[in-house]
C-alpha cells in the first residue's frame, strides 16, 4: 500500500498537532512532505525536525532567523503568502491538508487543486466563502475533497458513495458552554467562559464559534457544498456528549451515524487513508462508561447564528463570505473585550443586512465581499 505524501498547512495549530500525531501513528500509510505555519517559528521547527519534511514554509518573514537557528537539517524553505501557494503545489505530494484558521487557506487550496492534488479540508472558511468555485475546480481537475471537520467526515463515512439517496443530513452540535445558559444571562458571559468548551479542545476562533453556534452555521453551508444537498435538507441537533459526530437519513427512513470519542485524529486519519480503514492506537468507545447519548432541538431564538447561516446559505453568492468575514471580525473584537457576547451575532446580522449579494461570484468578487464585510464589521464594532 502506498504511503500518502501529505503537505500540512497550519502545522502549528490544534488540527496541525492532531495531524502530526496521526502521521506518527500510521507511518506506513502517511508521510509529511511539507509543513507551513503563519508565525510560530519555534513550533514549526520542532515539527520539521521531527518529521524531516523536505519543504517548509513560514508566512511571517520576520521570524525566519528563529526558524533557521532551530532547524537541525536543511529542508527547502519557502516564505510569505507566495511560499504558501508554492508549497501547496509541491511536486512530490499527493494531498494537501488545509488547517489554516481564517481565509488564508483559500488561494493555496485552489493552487493544490490546479496541480492535481487531493484536498483534505479542515478550514471550513474555504467552502463557506468559495464553495462553488472550490468544488467545481475540484470536479474539473478530477481531484477529491476529503472533509476533516468531524461532522462532515462523519457524513462522508455514512454516505459511503450513495449521495443520491439522502433525505436529510443531520449535523450534531455539542451546544457549547452556554447550552443551558438563559438568554438574559448571555450578555454577561466572559471571554474565559466562552473559551471553556465542554467536549472539544480547539483553537480560540472555532471555540468562540462553538459557543455562539456560528460554527454549526458555517458547517451547514460547508455540508451543502461538500455533499451537494440543498440547505433545506441540512439540519442541526444538539448532542451534548459529542459522541455521534453527525448522521444521514436516507430515502428509506433509515439513519446512519458515525460514533467515536471527540478526538480529531479519527477524522484526520480517515481523510488520509480513505477508502481504507487501518489500525491505530486511538481508543475505541467503551460502552460500559457511556451511559447516555442525548439529543435536543437547538434554541434558534437564543442563538441566532443558525438562522443567519441558513439565510446566507440559501441566498448564496457572496453572502456566506460576508457572514464569515463579519463573524471573524466580531469574534476578534469579543476576544479583545470590545464586544459583549450577543453583539457578535448582532454585528454579523447588521453587516449581512447591508450587503447586496452577487450571484455566482468569481474569486475576485468573493475577496471583494470579504474585504467589504470586514470594513463594515469594524465600523459596527467601533460604534
Ligand atoms: P489554530 O488557531 O489552533 O491554528 C491555526 C493555524 O493556522 C496555525 O498553524 C497558524 O500558523 C495557521 N495560520 C493562521 N493564519 C495563517 C496565515 N495567514 N497563513 C498561514 N497560516 C496561518 O486553529 P485550529 O483550531 O487548528 O483550526 C484550523 C482550521 O480547522 C479552522 O478553519 C477551523 O475552523 C478548522 N477546524 C478545527 C477543528 C479543531 O478541532 N481545532 C475542528 C474542525 C475544524
Ligand atoms: Mg466541526
Describe the structure.
The protein is α/β, with parallel strands linked by helices. The protein folds into 3 domains: 4-147, 3-Layer(aba) Sandwich (Rossmann fold), CATH 3.40.50.720; 162-262 and 291-314, no CATH class; 316-383, RNA polymerase sigma factor, region 2, helix turn helix motif (Rna Polymerase Sigma Factor, Chain: A), CATH 1.10.1740.10. 45% of the residues lie in helices and 15% in strands. It is built from 15 helices and 11 strands. It has helices at 14-25, 41-51, 64-70, 80-88, 106-114, 124-141, 150-159, 191-194, 204-212, 214-227, 265-273, 305-315, 319-335, 341-353, 363-382; strands spanning 4-9, 30-37, 55-58, 76-79, 95-98, 118-121, 145-147, 166-173, 234-238, 244-250, 255-259. It has a 7-stranded parallel sheet with strand order 4-3-2-1-5-6-7, sandwiched between helices. Helix 2 (41-51) runs parallel beside helix 3, helix 4 (80-88) runs parallel beside helix 5 and helix 6 packs antiparallel against helix 13. The longest helix is centred in the last third of the chain and has 20 residues, at 363-382. The chain is globular. It starts with a strand and ends with a helix. The mean pLDDT is 97. Nicotinamide-adenine-dinucleotide binds next to helix 1 and helix 6.
The tally of helices reads 15
List segments where confidence is low: pLDDT < 50 over at least 5 consecutive residues: none
Strand content bin: 15-25%
Bound molecules: nicotinamide-adenine-dinucleotide, magnesium ion
Strand order of the largest sheet: 4-3-2-1-5-6-7
What general outline do the C-alpha atoms trace?
A: globular
Element string (H = helix, E = strand)? EHEHEHEHEHEHEHEHHHEEEHHHHH
Reported CATH architecture of the largest domain: 3-Layer(aba) Sandwich
Seen as an oligomer or otherwise, the chain set is single chain
Amino acid at each position: 500500500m502506498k504511503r500518502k505524501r501529505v503537505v500540512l498547512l497550519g502545522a502549528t495549530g490544534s488540527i496541525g498537532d492532531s495531524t502530526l500525531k496521526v502521521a506518527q501513528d500510521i507511518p506506513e500509510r502517511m508521510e509529511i512532505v511539507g509543513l507551513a505555519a503563519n508565525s510560530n517559528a519555534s513550533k514549526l521547527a520542532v515539527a520539521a525536525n521531527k518529521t524531516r519534511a523536505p519543504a517548509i514554509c513560514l508566512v511571517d518573514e520576520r521570524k525566519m532567523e528563529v526558524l533557521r537557528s532551530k532547524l537541525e537539517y536543511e529542508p527547502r524553505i519557502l516564505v510569505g503568502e507566495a511560499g504558501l501557494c508554492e508549497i501547496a503545489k509541491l511536486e512530490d505530494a499527493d494531498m494537501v491538508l488545509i488547517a489554516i484558521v481564517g481565509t488564508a487557506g483559500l488561494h493555496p487550496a485552489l493552487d493544490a487543486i490546479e496541480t492535481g492534488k487531493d484536498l483534505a479540508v479542515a478550514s471550513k472558511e474555504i467552502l463557506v466563502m468559495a464553495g462553488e468555485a472550490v468544488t467545481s475546480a475540484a470536479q474539473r481537475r478530477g481531484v477529491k475533497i476529503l472533509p476533516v471537520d468531524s461532522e462532515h467526515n462523519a457524513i462522508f463515512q455514512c454516505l459511503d458513495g450513495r449521495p443520491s439517496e439522502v433525505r436529510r443530513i443531520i449535523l450534531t452540535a455539542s451546544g457549547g458552554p452556554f447550552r443551558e445558559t438563559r438568554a438574559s444571562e448571555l450578555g454577561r458571559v466572559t471571554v474565559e467562559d466562552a473559551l471553556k468548551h465542554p467536549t472539544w479542545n480547539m483553537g480560540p476562533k472555532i471555540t468562540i464559534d462553538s459557543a455562539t453556534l456560528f460554527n454549526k452555521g458555517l458547517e451547514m453551508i460547508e455540508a451543502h457544498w461538500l455533499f451537494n444537498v440543498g440547505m433545506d435538507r441540512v439540519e442541526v441537533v444538539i448532542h451534548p456528549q459529542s459522541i455521534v459526530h453527525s448522521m444521514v437519513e436516507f430515502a428509506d427512513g433509515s439513519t446512519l451515524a458515525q460514533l467515536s470519542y471527540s478526538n480529531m485524529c479519527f477524522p484526520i486519519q480517515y481523510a488520509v487513508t480513505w477508502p481504507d480503514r487501518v489500525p491505530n492506537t486511538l481508543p475505541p468507545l467503551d460502552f460500559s462508561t457511556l451511559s447516555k447519548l442525548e439529543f435536543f432541538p437547538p434554541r434558534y431564538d437564543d442563538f441566532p447564528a443558525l438562522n443567519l447561516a441558513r439565510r446566507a446559505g440559501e441566498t448564496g453568492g457572496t453572502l456566506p463570505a460576508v457572514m464569515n468575514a463579519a463573524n471573524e471580525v466580531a469574534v476578534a473584537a469579543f476576544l479583545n473585550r470590545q464586544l459583549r457576547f450577543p453583539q457578535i451575532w448582532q454585528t454579523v446580522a447588521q453587516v449581512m443586512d447591508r450587503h447586496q449579494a452577487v450571484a455566482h461570484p468569481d474569486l475576485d468578487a468573493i475577496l471583494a465581499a470579504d474585504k467589504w464585510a470586514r470594513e463594515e464589521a469594524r465600523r459596527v464594532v467601533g460604534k
